[in-house]
Amino acid sequence: MLYVGILCPHPNGWRVRIPDIEGCWQDGPTPAETIAAVTADLRDHVESAASIGHRLPAPTPAKMVVLVEGPRPDEIVVLIPITPPAPDLSCPGLTADQWEGWDHST
């Protein structure tokens, strides 16, 4: 599953935000480090939601994000992957098997 991120220059380097997930954004010194940080943040959002029995919204298709967000000339649309939690993570209520069976459309 891929969430759309918006990467842009920031006074301290770079920033990526995930429009679908309120509060999911990260800053970093390079684009690669910033994308890695927001990927970890997105994973944290998945685990936090699962721990209380919630799910994140399904990702908005990239084409729709581009139409709605209308990235500025200095913004770059990036795809942020989210993978199932590793079996050894403490993520109550969400196992890798449950992830595979999760209806991502709800």
What does this structure look like?
- The chain is an alpha+beta fold.
- It has helices at 31-51, 62-69, 96-101, and strands spanning 2-10, 13-17, 25-28, 76-81.
- The chain has a single domain (2-99), classed as Double Stranded RNA Binding Domain (2-Layer Sandwich).
- It has a 4-stranded antiparallel β-sheet with strand order 3-2-1-4.
- It starts with a strand and ends in a 5-residue tail after the last helix.
- The model has no long low-confidence stretch (mean pLDDT 82).
List keywords for this structure.
106 residues; alpha+beta; Double Stranded RNA Binding Domain; four-stranded antiparallel β-sheet; 4 strands; 33% helix
Q: Layout of helices and strands, plus pairs?
A:
Layout (H helix, E strand, L loop, with lengths): L1 E9 L2 E5 L7 E4 L2 H21 L10 H8 L6 E6 L14 H6 L5
Antiparallel strand pairs: 1-2, 1-4, 2-3
